[in-house]
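User: I'm curious whether this sequence folds into something compact or stays loose and floppy. Could you predict its structure so I can see for myself?
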Amino acid sequence: MKRAALISLLATSLAGCSTISSTWNSWFGNEKSKPAALEVLSGPESGRIVWSAKGDNINFPLSIATPGDRFVVASSDGSVRALSAADGRELWRGDAGGKLLAGIGSDGRFAAVVNRDNELVVLDAGRVVWKKALPTPVVAAPLVAGERVFALTLDRQVLAFDALDGRKIWELKRPGEPLTLAKAGVLLAYKDTLVVGQGPRLAGVDPLKGSLRWEAGVATPRGTNEVERLADVVGPAVRQGELVCARAFQSSVGCVNAERGSALWNRVVGGANGIGADDQVVVAGDASDRLSAWKLANGDLAWSADQFQLRKLSVPVLSAKQVLVGDFEGQVHLLDRDTGKTRSRLATDGSAVVSIALLGDTALVATKSGGLFAIKAE
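Assistant: Here's the prediction. I'll summarize afterward.
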């Protein structure tokens, strides 16, 4: 498994060679490879920071869960906190007992993380109730739903545990892919179906039995070798009504109908991060941080925006007809959803934006140095 992970990391490096080359050139003064300068903005503010908090460093992207009326946040040191979405008030705090390898999932009561010993750790209102060693490495945040905890391993095995006592209920093993990507995959719920990323496909799984219900492709891998054909679906994916949309690594962005279990559309575009969406558009960045928006209904291109090239953008989220995206300097940019034009910008703490999670009309921004900033787009 270690060999597979190393091969996966190598594949990531090879597939992202243009980005590496850009970084190398920027170190040696190639002006074309430097991050785009911040725009001069003169319009009114279109968002505001309503509260902030401080925690430990965060080194993984899926560090925030959004159950009910709260944000549940995991830090790299193993601390887990539930914060009121309204005012940032701490509702409970716990400790997973060690540094973390993957992000967090929560249903409001139970919270689940994976530590660096590859143990699934479940807390109940901040108190550790059980731990379970997993068979292969995990980098995806667990999913907690229906008093069950679901884990997706690096080799795309899915395991289901009872949230109360840690009893393993089922496991789903898929035929091994030649290579898998060492990035968080897709694991989310659609009605009574568990939606899982399996290579370049999304799969619908019965959460009670672990049996496969449907599969739908997000990408059609192409290339002369296994590295070039690597097209794992990466998280986070987004759900809008019956549609689940996701990115296939360096291949495409696409949506599937989770009710029918069929592909709706996909568009060829490079990139390695997850996507954002609302009921109108799907938004994603490519390897050079050019943002594109496609119409949710049919995949037609709505706009492209290149004002943030090489600024190491976070996964975007959409709120109040705006696109929120963070960069390597801790800036949060708010774009018009319909045009891609920048409307305003908010500064955080100067460290890279790692994750943005949306709960109602509040977006919580997490930075690498542990800053938490709740933003309302207006």
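Summary: The longest strand covers residues 47-54. The helical segments are 2-15, 17-27.
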